[in-house]
Amino acid sequence: MSSIDFAALAERDHADPLAAKRNLFRIPTDTIYLDGNSLGLMTHATATRVQEVVQRQWANDGIKSWNQHDWVNLPSLVGDKIAPIIGAAPGQVICCDSISVNLFKVLSAAIKLQDGRTQVVSTQDNFPTDLYMVQGLSQLLGEKHCALTTVDENAILEQPSQFINEHTAVVLLTEVNFRTGRRLPLQQLIAHAHAVGALVIVDLAHSAGAMPVELDAWQADFAVGCTYKYLNGGPGAPAFVYVAKRHLQRLNQPLAGWFGHAQPFAFDPVYQPADTIKQMLSGTPSIIAMSAVDAALDAFTGVDLQQVREKSIALSELFLELLASYDFAHAFECISPADPRARGSQLSFAHDDAYAICQALIEANVIADFRAPNYLRVGFTPLYTSYTDIGVAVERLAAIMQEESYRAPRFQQRHAVT
Ligand SMILES: Cc1ncc(COP(=O)(O)O)c(C=O)c1O
Ligand SMILES: Nc1c(O)cccc1C(=O)C[C@H](N)C(=O)O
């Protein structure tokens, strides 16, 4: 048995320097949303902006809007808004396509820069699309030009020289593991890769907006990330890609589309890439979706990402502490690192009944998610998750576990998206 001290949690919310940011978001009624690591919530400003783009810009100004509302520069404007969140100086980030497509562009370009080296090293448990993109490129170019080696996360940390060495062309690392929430020490791994002449591509899907990221200071070569998780850009929102300034003049990305041309409206039959980050564009940007990202990013105005990180750690530690006070806690094996500095902004628990428990939580308006084979994930978004939220979530979880309501047949039925 346990009882949660909600007065103490309310005090922590009162003292929270980020508390006011919660008002910028549409929080579904009576809902504790712990899935911002998959799809962030919508801001009020986003809804207003999408209305504006659709009802006024497109409806009234039609094609004139490319100039009148600067639609044509939206990818780089949004890129420059994302840049400070990931520690990049202006001119190195652009918003476009998906992580998958952007990975294909930077992987191909990086391999080409390496002139002779062919090995791409990544982690076995990386998000599958990252590995698929290397496999696809390998099929296209042939194993002799691009070959994937996957390595266990522990092994890469314990013996970096064994896996990242003079044979390695590119190291592809996701900072935070989507399944376990484990955070890799990127700065250290980038330094090691550079010492042996390898280039590094970083996937920031679970980092951007959740913690400080210092791409320029770490000297990352390339990075990709999505805007639909902690940046709250909306379902399928366009992703971003970072190319370090030092590579911009000598890059050759293969999805050479007209928006990446030096002069798209010259309609030149011969491709001539822009010499700026715009060369990473391919086709026409999705303006409505990108406008949603643009508006959502305003929630980061004045935000200190160190404070975001501190609150993320405090929320996750609170979750663990409250959970531990219940008898049923022993059945939840936390597979995320015990040291909060080695985690992203989520906790993952292995439990034999994780799927049914997750469904029961969702029915109780605690939105968590499930990842195969038996992991329950809870994500913390410091801009809108409160300390009281954590108390309510654990209290509702306790009711589900104590009453064993998750055993009901309706919670066993699997959905297509989990
Ligand atoms: C680490 C990581 N990379 C890539 C993706 C997917 O990228 P996209 O669907 O934008 O191609 C995800 C989640 O969807 C992810 O967690
Ligand atoms: N991108 C997603 C989607 O289009 C549908 C459902 C979930 C997602 C996700 O973001 C999955 C996510 N990358 C994960 O960490 O599991």
In short:
Helix content is 38%, strand content 12%.
Q: What is the third-level CATH name, the topology of the largest domain?
A: Aspartate Aminotransferase, domain 2
Q: How many domains make up the coordinates?
A: 2
- CATH homologous superfamily of the largest domain, by name? Type I PLP-dependent aspartate aminotransferase-like (Major domain)
CATH architectural category of the largest domain: 3-Layer(aba) Sandwich
Family: Belongs to the kynureninase family.
Function: Catalyzes the cleavage of L-kynurenine (L-Kyn) and L-3-hydroxykynurenine (L-3OHKyn) into anthranilic acid (AA) and 3-hydroxyanthranilic acid (3-OHAA), respectively.
GO cellular component, one term: cytoplasm
GO molecular function, one term: kynureninase activity
Please, could you describe this protein's structure?
This protein is of the alpha/beta class. The protein has 2 domains: 6-30 and 304-411, Aspartate Aminotransferase, domain 1 (Alpha-Beta Complex), CATH 3.90.1150; 51-300, Type I PLP-dependent aspartate aminotransferase-like (Major domain) (Aspartate Aminotransferase, domain 2, 3-Layer(aba) Sandwich), CATH 3.40.640.10. Helix content is 38%, strand content 12%. The chain is built from 15 helices and 13 strands. The strands form 3 sheets. It has a 7-stranded mixed beta sheet with strand order 2-8-7-6-5-3-4, sandwiched between helices. It has a 4-stranded antiparallel beta sheet with strand order 9-10-13-12, covered by helices on one side. Strand 6, helix 10 and strand 7 form a beta-alpha-beta unit. Helix 2 packs antiparallel against helix 12. The longest helix is centred in the last third of the chain and has 20 residues, at 305-324. It is globular. The chain starts with 5 loop residues before the first helix and ends in a 15-residue tail after the last helix. The model has no long low-confidence stretch (mean pLDDT 97). InterPro entries: Kynureninase, PyrdxlP-dep_Trfase, PyrdxlP-dep_Trfase_major, PyrdxlP-dep_Trfase_small. Keywords: Hydrolase, Pyridine nucleotide biosynthesis, Pyridoxal phosphate.
